[in-house]
Amino acid sequence: MFKRILLTAAVLVATTASSMAATGWTTGAVNFRDGPGAYYAKIGSIARCASVQLDYVQNGWYRVQWNGRWGWVAQRYITDSAGYCSGGGYTKHSGSYSKPASGGY
Q1: What is the pLDDT of residues 43-100, one digit of tens each?
Q2: Selection from 60, 70, 59 nearest residue 33 by Cα
Q3: How would you class 58 by CB atoms within 10 Å of its CB: exposed for 0-12, middle for 13-18, buried for 19 or more?
Q4: pLDDT band of 30, cuts 50, 70, 90
Q5: Cα distances (Å, whole numbers) of residue 97 to 48, 70, 84, 93, 100
Q6: 16-79 has which CATH code?
Q7: How far apart are the first and last CA of the chain?
Q8: How far is Cα 65 from Cα 45, in angstroms, rounded to an integer?
Q9: What does pTM read for this prediction?
């Protein structure tokens, strides 16, 4: 009986949380949350193309480490493609703006 309960618990954990140890990048500015869901408290914001360490995924949310802190980001805002931010048409913004020489926008 105990083995059956243990096996059921192991299957349940395996289907709701997949373990991984990888690097990911944010695909947009994202909320960094206290738990795996939009109803958890926001503990910060992570900028687009920030590198995060992925721990595991649970119900569509990654547990990530960013700036030395653990939190959660929606899975749809994370990519595992290193090329996404380095050459895929996205240029990191420096925070400054220069008006075009022609005066147009």
Answers
A1: 999 999 999 999 999 999 999 999 999 999 999 999 988 788 876 544 443 333 333 3
A2: 70
A3: middle
A4: very high
A5: 18, 34, 23, 9, 9
A6: 2.30.30.40
A7: 72
A8: 13
A9: 0.63
